[in-house]
Amino acid sequence: MLDLTKDFFDVFNIEKSFSIDKNHIEKEYFLLQNKYHPDRFVNASEEEKFEAAQSSIFINKAYNTLKDDLKRSEYILKIQSIMVNTESSDSIKPCPILLMEVMEDRDQLSELKNFDDIQDFENRINSKKEKCLNELDNEFNNENYNDAASLTIRLQFLTKILEEIRLKKLKELQ
Amino acid sequence: MMLLDIHEPGESSDNNDIGATIGIDLGTTNSLVAIANQGVYEVIADENGKFLIPSIVEYLKDGNVEVGNKFSDSTNAIRSVKRLMGKSFGDIKDLYDNDIHNVVDSKEDNEDNIVYFDVGDKKVTAIEVSAEILKELKNRAEAELSNIVDKAVITVPAYFDDAARQSTKDAAKLAGIDVLRLVNEPTAAALCYGLDKEAEGIYAIYDLGGGTFDVSILKMEKGVFQVIATGGDTFLGGDDFDNEITKYIIEKYLNDIELSSEDLLRIQKLSREIKEILSEDDTGEWKINISGEEYNILFTRSLFEEKVASLVDKTISTFSRVLIDSDLKRDEIQGVVLVGGSTRMPIVREKLNKFIGDIIIADINPDKVVAIGAAIQAESLTQGNNTLLIDVTPLSLGLETYGGLVEVIIHRNTPIPCSASQKFTTFKDGQTGLKIHVLQGEREMVDQCRSLAQFELKNIPPMKAGAAIVEVTFTMDSDGLLTVSAREETTGTQQEIEVKPSYGLPANKIEEMLLDSMNNAKDDIMRRLLAEVKVEADITVTSVESALESDRELLSYEEYENITSVIDDIKELMLGDDRDKLDIAIKHLDKITGPFAEKRVNKSLGEYLEGESVNEFAKKL
Fold first, then answer.
1. B517-542 as b/e, with b when 16 or more CB fall inside 10 Å?
2. Residue B464 CB neighbours (<10 A)
C-alpha cells in the first residue's frame, strides 16, 4: 500500500517547488495508478481491495492538487503553515487595491454579450494569470512566503473569474 | 493484432479452459456481444455472419418473445427501448410528443409513473424489454462458447444518469447477468481503438448512435486510458434523423391522410432506409403503400442535409462545450475517433471536419468498437490484462444547502475513485439534526438536479448555532458507487449511507416487482413513495419550526399564524397515507415561507455587512 502520510510532492518523487514538470507528474501518475488502482486488485482480498482504493484516492488527490496552479500554491503554503484568505485572524488577507481591480473585472465581464468579446476578455485575464504565476514562482524560489501568499490570493480571484468566464462561454453555447 | 476480426461460427476450439468474459454493447438500434479470449477479442456473429442484433423485442401471440427481427411490422414489437431506460412516464411525456407507440398512457395504469408498453395480452416495463435483448446476447455468447456466461461488462452512454444506469443493471439482473461494470460507450471505443492502433496522446471520441450522442476526451499512454472530460445528449441520435424524414414525408405526401400506427411504423422504417441510402447516394426514389394507394417518395441528399443540419450542429456545440470543460484547445486533440452507425452520414463528417480540422479517424468499424472495448474491460476486470481505465464522474455531485441551493462536493470530470469533504454547521441554537440531501447535476438549484438520496444526521448535541461542525464526505469507488457519510466533529456522531437512486425501482425489489403480481409491486412502490414524502415533510417542518423560533420577529402576526396552521395540517397528514395531499401541503409551506426565508437571508447579510472587514467583503466577490 502507498504511504498515505507522504506529502504530495513525495508521492510523485519531485522537489517541493512551485514550478513543476507537468509531463513528469503525468507519467508518474499513470505509473502509480497502474500499480495501485482498485481495478488491478479485482481478485484480491477485501483488505487489499480497501487499501488499493485508499491509495488510488490519495494518488488522484495528489495529482489533482499538484497539476492545478492554484491548488499547488495553496498546498505549499499549507505545508509552511501559512493561511490565506480565511476568517482566522492570523490569515493573510487580500489588499484593497486587489479588491478594486477584481470588482472592475467583474463589472466588465457582466457587460460582455458576444462570444468573441468574452474570448478577448479571457485572453486578458489569462495574461494577468501568466504574470502572476511567474511572480509566484519567483517568490517561492526566494522563500518569500508572505509575498507568495498575497500572490496566491490574487491567483484565487483570477481563477474564480476564469471559471465564471468559462460558465458564461458554456451558456453562450447552449 | 486480431482485434477487429469477426469470428466465424464453428471456428472456435479450446476457449473453454479459461472462463471467457463477455462485453455487451446494448445499443438503441442494434446490440452486439464480444468475447475476450487470451488477448484476442472478437464480436460474435450469428449463423448468417451478422453481428448486429437489432434491438427490437417482439411479443408474439403464442407468448414467446423474439429479439432482433427488424422486418417486423407488428405493433407488439418494441424498438429503441434504451431511450426510455430510467425514465418515468412524466419524463417521456415531456420529451416526446406522440411518437412512442404502445406506451400505456391511461391515468389508471400509471399512478406509479412507470413506463409500460402494451404488448397484446400483457404490459411490460422498459427494464423487462431490455432484459430480453440481454438474454439473447447471453444465449448467443453461450452457444458460441459452449459454456455458461454469467458476467459481463455492459456499455452505456456516457451521459446516462444514475436512474438509467440502475435500470440497465436491473435489466442485466433479470437476464441472469452479473454486471462487472457499466462502462461508458466512448470510453469502451477508446480502449479498443487505443489498443488496436497503439495510439498515444489525447483523442476525442465522437459517438453518434441510434438514440444517444456522447463525446469524450481521453488521454492514452501505455495501456492506461484516462478520461479527461465527457459530455453528451441522451436524446439525440439516428432516430432523430429518421424522424426528420418521417415528418417531411407526412407533410409533403400524406398531409390529409389518417395514418394508423402500422402506417406510421412503415413510414419510420422507410425513413431509416432513405437515410442509409442517402449516406451513399445523392438521390433516390422510394415507393410506399398507404391505405391502398401507392406514393412515390423523392429525396435528395441535399434536402436531407438541410433537414438535419441543426441536429448535427447540436453535436458540434456539445463537442465544443466538452473542449471548454477539459481546458483543451482544438489543436491539442490528436484525433477524433468516429463511433456509432450514425457517423456514416457524410454531413456529420463534413461538419466535424470544419470544426476541428482534418484529424477525423474513420478507419475502424464504428459498429464494433464499443462491444470489443467492453470485452477488453471485462477481461481486465476478471483475468486482468495490460489495460487500465481511469474514469471520471460524468455529472457533479453535491448537497442541498440553505435556500434550495446546491453546493457541489465532487465536480464532474473528477477521476475516480475519489473522496471529498465539506464542512457544514448548524444554523440555529440547540439544533440536533442536519438534513443531508444528495444531488446530481450541473444546475444551481435543488429542483433542477436529480435527487439521489436523503438522510438526517441525528443526535448532534445541542449547541449554539455554528458551534457544531459536521463534516460530510462523498466517496466514489471505481465502480462509480457513491457513499456519503456525515460526522459531527466534537462528538464523533456519525452516519453513512450507500447512495442508490431514490427514484425508479428499488434494486432489491426488482425481480419480485417484475415477476410477481403487478398489484403487489404497485403497493410496494406506493408505500415507498409515501415514506419518502413523509421524510421530506418531517425535514421541512423541522427546519421551518427552527427558523420560526429564531426569527419570528420578521413575521407579522397573520404570516406567523398562516405558517403555523399549515405546519399543523402537515403534521396531521403525516399520520395518514394520502401522499398527494401531503405533497401539496409541503409545496404550499415552501411557497408561503419563501418571503420569510428571504427576510432571514437579508437579516443575516445585514448583520454581516455591519461588522464588515475587508476580508469578509472579499469573500462575497
1. eeeebeebbeeebbeebbbbbbbbbb
2. 11
**B486 vs A62 pLDDT, higher one:** A62
pLDDT of residue B19: 54
> So what's the pLDDT on residue B107?
46
User: Angle formed by the axes of helices A145-173 and A69-79, to 10°?
Assistant: 150
Whole-number pLDDT of residue B49: 87
A164: closest chain B residue by CA = B621
Q: Are B195 and B3 in contact (CB under 8 A)?
A: yes
Q: Is the entire prediction scored with pTM above 0.90?
A: no
Q: Is there a catalytic annotation at residue B25?
A: yes
Mutate to test the interface with A, among B314, B389, B478, B616 (most CBs of A within 10 A): B478
Subunit contact B222:A102, Cβ cutoff 8 A = no
Render the burial of B422-458: b for 16+ CB within 10 Å, e for the rest: bebebbbeebbbbbbbbbbbbeeebeebbbbbbbbbe
User: CB distance from A108 to chain B under 8 Å?
Assistant: no
Please count the CA atoms within 13 angstroms of the CA of B150 that sit on its side-chain side. Answer: 2
- Chain A CB contacts of B448 under 8 Å are none
pLDDT at residue A102 above 50? Answer: yes
Q: Which of B58, B82, B112, B136 is catalytic?
A: B82
Tell whether B519 is within 8 A of chain A (Cβ): no
Residue B554, pLDDT > 50, answer yes
Q: What is the ipTM of this complex?
A: 0.86
Across B444-453, B471-480, B609-618, the highest mean pLDDT is recorded for B471-480
Instruction: Return all residues near A19 (Cβ < 8 A) that are at least 6 apart.
Output: A137, A141
B320, B477, B613 member nearest A38 (Cβ): B477
Is A38 in CB contact (< 8 Å) with chain B? yes
Q: Is B417 on the interface with A (CB under 8 A)?
A: yes
What pLDDT score was predicted for residue B318? Answer: 92
User: CB distance B221–A27 less than 8 Å?
Assistant: yes
pLDDT score recorded for residue B238: 93
Q: What is the 3-state secondary structure (H, E, C) of B160-186?
A: CCHHHHHHHHHHHHHCCCEEEEEEEHH
**Grid cell in block for residue B178:** 452479473
- Confirm whether B534 is a catalytic residue: no
